[in-house]
Design brief:
The protein is of the alpha/beta class. 49% of the residues lie in helices and 13% in strands. The chain contains 11 helices and 6 strands. The chain is globular, with a radius of gyration of 18 Å.
Protein backbone atom coordinates (compact mmCIF):
# COMPACT_ATOMS: atom_id res chain seq x y z
CA UNK A 1 0.00 0.00 0.00
CA UNK A 2 1.21 3.48 -0.85
CA UNK A 3 1.10 6.03 1.97
CA UNK A 4 0.84 9.55 0.61
CA UNK A 5 1.46 11.08 4.01
CA UNK A 6 5.02 9.74 4.18
CA UNK A 7 5.89 9.67 0.48
CA UNK A 8 8.87 11.82 -0.51
CA UNK A 9 7.67 14.20 -3.24
CA UNK A 10 9.40 16.99 -5.18
CA UNK A 11 7.84 20.22 -3.91
CA UNK A 12 8.45 22.61 -6.83
CA UNK A 13 10.09 22.92 -10.24
CA UNK A 14 13.17 24.59 -8.76
CA UNK A 15 13.89 21.44 -6.76
CA UNK A 16 14.31 19.48 -10.00
CA UNK A 17 17.63 21.25 -10.51
CA UNK A 18 18.82 19.87 -7.16
CA UNK A 19 18.57 16.25 -8.25
CA UNK A 20 22.07 14.74 -8.29
CA UNK A 21 23.86 13.74 -11.47
CA UNK A 22 24.19 10.08 -12.35
CA UNK A 23 21.70 7.23 -12.25
CA UNK A 24 18.48 8.67 -10.86
CA UNK A 25 14.99 7.18 -11.24
CA UNK A 26 12.17 9.75 -11.45
CA UNK A 27 8.51 8.72 -11.34
CA UNK A 28 5.32 10.77 -11.37
CA UNK A 29 2.20 10.39 -9.24
CA UNK A 30 -1.39 11.47 -9.78
CA UNK A 31 -4.79 10.31 -8.53
CA UNK A 32 -4.89 7.46 -11.04
CA UNK A 33 -1.50 6.05 -10.08
CA UNK A 34 -2.24 6.54 -6.37
CA UNK A 35 -5.43 4.49 -6.68
CA UNK A 36 -3.64 1.75 -8.59
CA UNK A 37 -0.81 1.59 -6.09
CA UNK A 38 -3.29 0.73 -3.32
CA UNK A 39 -4.09 -2.49 -5.16
CA UNK A 40 -0.66 -3.27 -6.63
CA UNK A 41 2.11 -3.95 -4.13
CA UNK A 42 4.91 -3.87 -6.70
CA UNK A 43 3.69 -0.54 -8.10
CA UNK A 44 3.54 0.93 -4.59
CA UNK A 45 7.08 -0.29 -3.94
CA UNK A 46 8.29 1.21 -7.22
CA UNK A 47 6.88 4.62 -6.30
CA UNK A 48 8.14 4.47 -2.74
CA UNK A 49 11.69 3.34 -3.48
CA UNK A 50 12.54 5.44 -6.54
CA UNK A 51 14.84 8.44 -6.21
CA UNK A 52 12.27 11.16 -6.87
CA UNK A 53 8.50 11.44 -7.22
CA UNK A 54 6.94 14.32 -9.15
CA UNK A 55 3.38 15.50 -8.29
CA UNK A 56 1.75 15.12 -11.70
CA UNK A 57 -1.70 16.15 -10.56
CA UNK A 58 -3.29 19.04 -8.68
CA UNK A 59 -5.20 16.42 -6.68
CA UNK A 60 -1.92 15.19 -5.18
CA UNK A 61 -0.86 18.73 -4.25
CA UNK A 62 -4.20 19.42 -2.53
CA UNK A 63 -4.35 16.01 -0.84
CA UNK A 64 -0.93 16.52 0.74
CA UNK A 65 -2.25 19.75 2.28
CA UNK A 66 -5.47 18.16 3.52
CA UNK A 67 -3.75 15.30 5.32
CA UNK A 68 -0.73 17.36 6.45
CA UNK A 69 1.70 15.06 4.64
CA UNK A 70 5.41 15.16 5.38
CA UNK A 71 6.04 16.67 1.94
CA UNK A 72 4.02 19.71 0.92
CA UNK A 73 4.20 20.21 -2.87
CA UNK A 74 3.74 23.86 -3.78
CA UNK A 75 2.63 23.23 -7.36
CA UNK A 76 1.72 20.59 -9.86
CA UNK A 77 4.67 19.40 -11.94
CA UNK A 78 3.30 17.58 -14.96
CA UNK A 79 5.23 14.85 -16.71
CA UNK A 80 5.53 17.35 -19.55
CA UNK A 81 7.24 19.85 -17.22
CA UNK A 82 9.76 17.20 -16.17
CA UNK A 83 10.36 16.33 -19.82
CA UNK A 84 10.98 19.93 -20.89
CA UNK A 85 13.24 20.61 -17.90
CA UNK A 86 15.45 17.56 -18.46
CA UNK A 87 15.62 17.98 -22.24
CA UNK A 88 16.58 21.65 -21.98
CA UNK A 89 19.22 20.88 -19.37
CA UNK A 90 20.76 18.14 -21.51
CA UNK A 91 20.76 20.40 -24.57
CA UNK A 92 22.59 23.10 -22.59
CA UNK A 93 25.10 20.56 -21.30
CA UNK A 94 25.82 19.43 -24.85
CA UNK A 95 26.41 23.00 -26.00
CA UNK A 96 28.63 23.82 -23.03
CA UNK A 97 30.70 20.66 -23.46
CA UNK A 98 30.93 21.11 -27.21
CA UNK A 99 29.87 17.56 -27.96
CA UNK A 100 26.72 15.66 -28.84
CA UNK A 101 24.87 13.91 -26.03
CA UNK A 102 22.32 11.12 -26.31
CA UNK A 103 18.67 10.94 -25.26
CA UNK A 104 16.81 7.65 -25.54
CA UNK A 105 13.05 7.06 -25.79
CA UNK A 106 12.05 3.51 -24.86
CA UNK A 107 8.40 2.64 -25.39
CA UNK A 108 5.43 3.36 -27.65
CA UNK A 109 5.04 2.47 -31.33
CA UNK A 110 7.47 2.97 -34.21
CA UNK A 111 5.13 5.59 -35.67
CA UNK A 112 5.16 7.67 -32.48
CA UNK A 113 8.91 7.25 -32.07
CA UNK A 114 9.52 8.39 -35.65
CA UNK A 115 7.56 11.57 -34.97
CA UNK A 116 9.49 12.09 -31.73
CA UNK A 117 12.84 11.72 -33.53
CA UNK A 118 11.82 14.20 -36.22
CA UNK A 119 10.70 16.83 -33.71
CA UNK A 120 13.50 16.32 -31.19
CA UNK A 121 16.21 16.67 -33.83
CA UNK A 122 14.82 20.12 -34.60
CA UNK A 123 14.07 21.21 -31.04
CA UNK A 124 17.33 19.88 -29.59
CA UNK A 125 19.96 20.05 -32.37
CA UNK A 126 22.86 19.11 -30.09
CA UNK A 127 21.29 15.80 -29.03
CA UNK A 128 21.36 12.42 -30.75
CA UNK A 129 17.97 10.72 -30.44
CA UNK A 130 17.83 6.95 -29.95
CA UNK A 131 14.54 5.02 -29.84
CA UNK A 132 13.38 1.51 -29.03
CA UNK A 133 9.86 0.16 -29.46
CA UNK A 134 9.21 -2.87 -27.23
CA UNK A 135 6.69 -5.58 -28.17
CA UNK A 136 3.08 -4.53 -27.63
CA UNK A 137 1.90 -7.07 -25.08
CA UNK A 138 0.57 -7.13 -21.52
CA UNK A 139 3.66 -8.85 -20.13
CA UNK A 140 7.15 -9.19 -21.56
CA UNK A 141 8.95 -12.51 -21.87
CA UNK A 142 12.45 -13.00 -20.46
CA UNK A 143 13.75 -12.57 -24.00
CA UNK A 144 11.84 -9.30 -24.40
CA UNK A 145 13.29 -7.99 -21.14
CA UNK A 146 16.79 -9.01 -22.16
CA UNK A 147 16.44 -7.27 -25.53
CA UNK A 148 15.20 -4.04 -23.95
CA UNK A 149 17.96 -4.04 -21.34
CA UNK A 150 20.59 -4.74 -23.99
CA UNK A 151 19.28 -1.91 -26.19
CA UNK A 152 19.45 0.57 -23.32
CA UNK A 153 22.87 -0.52 -22.11
CA UNK A 154 24.28 -0.52 -25.64
CA UNK A 155 22.96 3.00 -26.24
CA UNK A 156 24.36 4.17 -22.88
CA UNK A 157 22.24 7.36 -23.07
CA UNK A 158 22.76 10.62 -21.20
CA UNK A 159 19.01 10.75 -20.54
CA UNK A 160 16.44 7.95 -20.74
CA UNK A 161 12.67 8.25 -21.08
CA UNK A 162 10.45 5.21 -20.50
CA UNK A 163 6.92 5.44 -21.89
CA UNK A 164 4.75 2.33 -21.57
CA UNK A 165 1.83 3.78 -19.52
CA UNK A 166 1.41 3.41 -15.77
CA UNK A 167 1.90 1.17 -13.89
CA UNK A 168 3.76 -0.98 -16.44
CA UNK A 169 6.55 1.54 -17.03
CA UNK A 170 7.25 2.16 -13.34
CA UNK A 171 7.20 -1.53 -12.42
CA UNK A 172 9.40 -2.59 -15.33
CA UNK A 173 12.02 0.08 -14.66
CA UNK A 174 12.06 -0.67 -10.93
CA UNK A 175 12.34 -4.43 -11.44
CA UNK A 176 15.23 -4.07 -13.88
CA UNK A 177 16.97 -1.08 -12.29
CA UNK A 178 20.02 -3.10 -11.27
CA UNK A 179 20.31 -4.56 -14.78
CA UNK A 180 20.55 -1.13 -16.40
CA UNK A 181 24.24 -0.30 -16.67
CA UNK A 182 23.71 3.40 -17.26
CA UNK A 183 24.61 6.64 -15.49
CA UNK A 184 21.83 9.10 -16.27
CA UNK A 185 18.45 10.39 -15.19
CA UNK A 186 15.57 8.05 -16.07
CA UNK A 187 11.99 9.34 -16.22
CA UNK A 188 8.79 7.34 -16.64
CA UNK A 189 6.48 9.72 -18.48
CA UNK A 190 3.86 7.68 -20.38
CA UNK A 191 1.51 10.04 -22.22
CA UNK A 192 4.25 12.61 -22.84
CA UNK A 193 5.49 10.45 -25.71
CA UNK A 194 2.16 11.02 -27.50
CA UNK A 195 2.00 14.70 -26.53
CA UNK A 196 5.47 15.37 -27.90
CA UNK A 197 4.85 13.33 -31.05
CA UNK A 198 1.60 15.23 -31.62
CA UNK A 199 -0.53 12.08 -31.82
CA UNK A 200 -2.49 13.23 -28.75
CA UNK A 201 -3.25 16.89 -28.14
CA UNK A 202 -2.53 18.23 -24.69
CA UNK A 203 -5.07 20.52 -23.02
CA UNK A 204 -4.78 24.25 -23.83
CA UNK A 205 -2.85 26.33 -21.32
CA UNK A 206 -5.98 27.78 -19.61
CA UNK A 207 -7.13 24.27 -18.70
CA UNK A 208 -3.66 23.41 -17.41
CA UNK A 209 -3.37 26.54 -15.29
CA UNK A 210 -6.77 25.93 -13.69
CA UNK A 211 -6.04 22.28 -12.83
CA UNK A 212 -8.58 21.05 -15.38
CA UNK A 213 -6.36 19.09 -17.75
CA UNK A 214 -8.08 15.89 -16.59
CA UNK A 215 -11.46 17.40 -17.49
CA UNK A 216 -10.23 18.31 -20.97
CA UNK A 217 -9.09 14.75 -21.58
CA UNK A 218 -12.41 13.44 -20.29
CA UNK A 219 -14.35 15.67 -22.66
CA UNK A 220 -12.14 14.61 -25.57
CA UNK A 221 -12.35 10.89 -24.85
CA UNK A 222 -15.36 10.27 -22.57
CA UNK A 223 -15.82 6.59 -23.38
CA UNK A 224 -12.18 5.76 -22.63
CA UNK A 225 -11.59 8.16 -19.74
CA UNK A 226 -14.84 8.25 -17.74
CA UNK A 227 -13.89 5.45 -15.38
CA UNK A 228 -10.41 6.85 -14.77
CA UNK A 229 -11.54 10.41 -14.02
CA UNK A 230 -15.08 10.16 -12.65
CA UNK A 231 -14.93 6.89 -10.71
CA UNK A 232 -11.21 7.27 -10.08
CA UNK A 233 -11.40 10.79 -8.66
CA UNK A 234 -14.17 9.81 -6.28
CA UNK A 235 -12.17 6.76 -5.19
CA UNK A 236 -9.12 8.97 -4.66
CA UNK A 237 -11.04 11.40 -2.43
CA UNK A 238 -12.46 8.58 -0.32
CA UNK A 239 -9.08 6.92 0.08
CA UNK A 240 -7.23 10.12 0.96
CA UNK A 241 -9.82 11.58 3.34
CA UNK A 242 -11.16 8.49 5.07
CA UNK A 243 -9.00 5.41 4.53
CA UNK A 244 -5.28 5.96 4.00
CA UNK A 245 -4.56 8.93 6.24
Amino acid sequence: MLHLKTLSIIINKEQLSELPDGKVLINTINAFSYNNAQKDELFAEALTKCDAVVPDGASIVMACRWIKANCQPEERIAGWDLFVFEMNRLEERAKEQGKRLKVMFMGSSENVLTLIRERALKDYPHLDVITYSPPYKAAFSEEDDANIINAINTANPDLLWVGMTAPKQEKWTYQHWQDLDIHCHVGTIGAVFDFYAGTVKRAPRWWQEHSLEWCYRLLKEPRRMWRRYIVGNIEFLIRVLFINR
